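sry for the spam today, last one i promise. C-alpha cells for design, 692 residues
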C-alpha cells in the first residue's frame, strides 16, 4: 500500500539514535510549537541552508553548489544519528579577534536523547567563510557509545571540466599536494601519522571546479587527530572533516568538536589557505619575522654527500661565492650519529675547535655557514639511547616509533628533558661554534605519534603530537637568543608541511620535491600559508625536471638553491650519480650564473605573490604573477605552448612588455584581462612595466 505522510510531530517521536528508536511524546509536545521549518543565512558570497532535519546545502552567490545532505552528525554505535529535528534558532552580532560578524545558533535533537548545538559565524572581513562550532550533549538516560563524527561534509556538485584538490596530509609516497580529482580518487587525509615517520600537515582540504571551490579545515591552535577526506562521488567531490574518537558519552555529558571553517571561493586553493593563515594569525599562530639573510641564495655541500671533506667545501666556496650564492650549508656527515651529535673526529680531529674554524673559514670566504641537524632522531647503539631511553616516544604497546631513513627512533618533543637537550645543541651550534643558521631535516619532523611513555606523565598521549610546535618554537627561541639574525630552516622531507610548526621557522624549502610541478605547487601553497613574501626555497635545482629547471624556482618567487660540486664530483657516491653528475661544468656554470644574476637583480622572493590571479589546476598554460616595486613579473609553464597567454592584474594605462629571461621586447598591453600571443617550450617569463 502507498506510504502515508508523516507529520513532524510524529516524526519527532520516531527519530533514531544509532540503531535504537527513542520515543519521546512529552518532548515532542513541548518542542513542536517552537520548531522552525529550517534556517537560511549567509553573506553575499556564501549562503547556508538547513532544513528541519538539519540537513544542509551551500550556495555560491545564490546558486546551489552542493545537494541538501546531513553533513554534521555524531556516529553512535557505528551508525550516524542523522535524523535530527531543528528545535530553535537565534542570531546575534559578534566581535572578537577576527573582527565583527554575525553568529547564528541552531539547536536540534535526535529523538530527545541527543542534542546538537551548532553555531555558524560569518565574519565581515572574510566573505564566503563560515566558522562552525559544534557540541553534542547526551540528553537521554543511558550512555551513548560514540564511535566518531563528521562535520561540514558536503559534495561539491560535478562540473563538465572536472575538479582539482589540495590535501594537507602527509603520506610516505610523498605524493603531490595538489592533484586532479579523477574517478575513484579517495584520500582520507588523516592529520596524524600515516607512516612510522610521515604525518602531520596543514589541517585544510580544498576542492574546486573551474567556477567555484570549497575548503574545509579546523581553526584549533594545536594540531588535532582528525581527517579531512576528499573523495570522488558519482555527482561530484566530497569534502569534510571527520573524527574517529571513541568514547562513552554519559547522560548530561557534552562532546565539543574542533572549531571548523567552510569557505566557498573562486580560483584554486590559494585564497582559502591565505584566509586560513590570516585567521590563525589572529588566533596567535603565525610565522616569525623574516631576516633579510633568509632570502639569500644557497649552496649546499650535499653534492659531496656524507663523505664530504673540509677541503672539498673550501675548494668550492670561491666558485659558489663568485656565482652569487651567499649561504654554505654543511649537510649530513659532520656527526658520529643521530642522537649523540658528537663531532666526527676523523673529519674534524680537534673537535669543537675545528667546527669553530670551519664556520670561521666559510665567513672569511664571504659566505654564511649553516649546519645540518636532525632533531628528535636517535640511532640504535648511541650513548644517548643507552643513557636516556626515557626520552623515547612509546606506543600503546611499548614499542618505539621508527625513523625509517636513518634506521632510528623518535624522541618525544613534549618531554622537557628532550626539549632541554636539543636547546643545548642549538645553543652550541649557533652560540659557540658560530654558525649563522641550522637546517633542521627529516620527514619525522612534521608529526609524531601519541606517546604512552609512562616516564613522561602526559595528561593525554596526544600531547606529543600537539606540542611538537612548542618544541620547534623552543629551538627557534634558543637560536635567536644566540644570534637575532639566525636562520632556522625546517625541512620535513616529503611531508605536507605542518602549519602549526611555522611558529618555529623562518625559512621553508620544497623539502625534496619529486618534480618541478611540486616546486611550483608547493611554492604557491607556502605563499598562502606563510604570506605572499614567504622565504620559500625551491630546494636543490638538481631535484627539478632535467636537474636544471631554475625557471620554476624563479617564477614562483622561490630562493635558488643548488648542491653542485666543483671542480669534480664526489669519488664516493652512495648511489650511482645521474648522467653528468653534479659537477659544475662550464656549460652549467653559464646557466647557473644567468639565473642567479636574474634572481639577485629582481629578488622576486621578496615581492608580493598574487596567488588569486591564476588557477594552477585549470589555467593553461600554468601561470603565476608577482608584483615587485611596481613591476608585474609573470611566469608561464607548459611542455610546449603556441597560443594566447593571459596577463591578468594589469592596472589602468599601458604596460611595456619584455621577455623576463632574454630581455627581448614583447610589445605593449593594457587592461585587467590583457593577453599576448606566445610560443614557448617549458617556460615563458614576462615583465610588465607601466609606461609613464
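last one done:
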Amino acid at each position: 500500500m502507498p506510504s502515508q505522510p508523516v507529520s513532524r510531530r510524529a516524526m519527532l517521536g520516531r527519530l533514531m539514535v544509532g540503531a535504537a528508536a527513542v520515543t519521546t511524546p512529552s518532548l515532542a509536545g513541548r518542542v513542536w510549537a517552537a520548531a522552525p521549518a529550517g534556517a537560511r543565512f549567509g553573506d553575499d558570497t556564501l549562503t547556508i541552508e538547513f532544513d528541519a532535519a538539519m540537513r544542509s546545502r551551500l550556495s555560491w552567490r545564490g546558486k546551489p553548489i552542493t545537494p541538501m545532505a546531513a553533513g554534521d552528525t555524531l556516529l553512535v554505535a557505528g551508525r550516524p544519528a542523522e535524523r535530527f529535528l531543528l528545535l530553535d534558532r537565534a542570531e546575534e552580532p559578534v566581535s572578537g579577534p577576527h573582527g565583527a560578524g554575525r553568529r547564528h545558533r541552531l539547536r536540534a535533537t535526535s529523538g530527545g536523547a541527543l542534542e546538537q548545538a551548532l553555531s555558524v559565524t560569518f565574519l565581515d572581513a572574510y566573505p564566503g567563510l563560515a566558522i562552525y562550532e559544534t557540541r553534542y550533549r547526551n540528553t537521554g538516560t543511558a550512555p551513548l557509545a560514540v564511535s566518531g563524527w563528521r562535520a561540514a561534509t558536503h559534495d561539491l556538485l560535478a562540473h563538465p571540466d572536472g575538479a582539482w584538490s589540495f590535501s594537507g596530509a602527509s603520506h610516505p609516497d610523498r605524493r603531490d599536494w595538489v592533484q586532479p580529482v579523477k574517478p575513484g580518487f579517495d584520500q582520507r587525509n588523516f592529520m596524524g601519522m600515516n607512516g612510522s615517520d610521515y604525518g602531520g600537515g596543514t589541517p585544510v582540504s580544498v576542492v574546486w571546479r573551474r567556477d567555484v571551490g570549497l575548503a574545509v579545515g579546523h581553526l584549533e591552535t594545536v594540531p588535532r587527530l582528525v581527517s579531512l577526506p576528499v573523495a570522488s562521488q558519482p555527482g561530484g567531490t566530497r569534502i569534510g572533516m571527520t573524527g574517529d574518537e571513541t568514547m562513552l558519552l554519559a547522560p548530561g555529558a557534552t562532546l565539543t568538536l574542533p572549531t571548523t571553517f567552510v569557505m566557498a571561493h573562486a580560483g584554486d586553493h590559494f585564497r582559502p589557505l591565505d584566509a586560513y593563515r590570516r585567521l590563525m594569525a589572529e588566533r596567535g599562530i603565525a610565522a616569525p619575522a623574516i631576516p633579510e639573510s633568509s632570502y639569500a641564495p644557497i649552496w649546499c655541500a650535499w653534492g659531496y654527500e656524507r663523505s664530504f671533506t673540509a677541503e672539498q667545501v673550501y675548494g668550492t666556496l670561491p666558485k659558489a661565492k663568485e656565482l652569487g650564492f651567499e649561504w654554505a650549508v654543511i649537510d649530513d656527515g659532520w656527526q658520529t650519529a643521530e642522537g649523540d651529535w658528537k663531532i666526527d673526529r676523523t673529519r674534524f680531529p680537534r673537535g669543537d675547535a675545528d667546527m669553530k674554524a670551519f664556520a670561521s673559514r666559510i665567513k672569511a670566504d664571504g659566505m654564511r655557514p649553516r649546519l645540518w641537524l636532525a632533531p628528535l632522531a636517535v640511532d640504535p647503539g648511541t650513548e644517548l639511547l643507552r643513557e636516556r631511553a626515557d626520552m623515547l616516544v612509546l606506543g600503546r604497546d611499548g614499542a618505539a616509533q621508527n625513523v625509517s631513513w636513518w634506521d632510528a627512533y623518535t624522541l618525544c618533543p613534549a618531554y622537557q628533558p628532550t626539549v632541554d637537550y636539543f636547546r643545548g645543541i642549538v645553543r652550541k651550534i649557533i652560540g659557540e661554534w658560530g654558525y649563522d643558521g641550522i637546517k633542521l631535516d627529516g620527514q619525522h619532523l612534521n608529526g609524531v605519534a601519541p606517546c604512552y611513555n609512562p616516564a613522561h606523565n602526559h595528561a593525554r598521549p596526544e600531547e606529543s603530537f600537539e606540542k611538537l610546535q612548542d618544541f620547534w618554537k623552543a629551538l627557534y627561541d634558543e637560536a635567536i637568543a644566540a644570534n637575532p639574525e639566525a636562520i632556522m630552516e625546517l625541512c620535513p622531507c616529503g611531508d605536507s608541511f605542518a602549519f602549526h610548526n611555522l611558529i618555529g621557522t623562518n625559512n621553508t624549502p620544497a623539502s625534496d620535491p619529486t618534480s618541478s610541478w611540486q616546486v611550483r605547487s608547493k611554492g604557491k601553497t607556502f605563499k598562502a600559508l606563510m604570506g605572499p613574501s614567504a622565504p620559500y626555497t625551491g630546494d636543490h635545482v638538481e631535484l627539478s625536471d632535467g636537474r636544471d629547471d631554475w625557471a620554476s624556482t624563479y617564477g614562483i618567487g622561490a630562493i635558488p638553491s643548488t648542491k653542485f660540486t666543483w671542480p669534480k664530483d664526489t669519488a664516493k657516491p652512495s648511489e650511482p650519480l645521474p648522467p653528468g653528475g653534479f659537477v659544475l661544468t662550464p656549460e652549467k656554470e653559464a646557466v647557473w650564473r644567468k639565473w642567479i644574476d636574474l634572481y639577485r637583480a629582481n629578488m622576486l622572493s621578496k615581492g608580493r605573490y598574487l596567488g588569486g590571479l591564476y588557477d594552477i589546476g585549470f589555467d593553461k598554460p600554468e601561470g603565476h604573477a608577482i608584483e615587485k616595486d611596481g613591476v608585474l613579473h609573470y611566469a608561464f609553464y607548459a611542455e610546449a605552448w603556441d597560443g594566447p597567454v593571459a596577463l591578468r592584474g594589469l592596472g589602468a594605462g599601458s604596460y611595456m612588455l619584455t621577455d623576463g629571461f632574454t630581455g627581448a621586447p614583447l610589445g605593449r598591453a593594457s587592461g585587467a584581462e590583457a593577453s599576448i600571443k606566445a610560443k614557448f617550450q617549458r617556460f615563458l617569463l614576462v615583465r610588465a612595466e607601466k609606461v609613464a
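The longest helix spans residues 416-432. ok im logging off now
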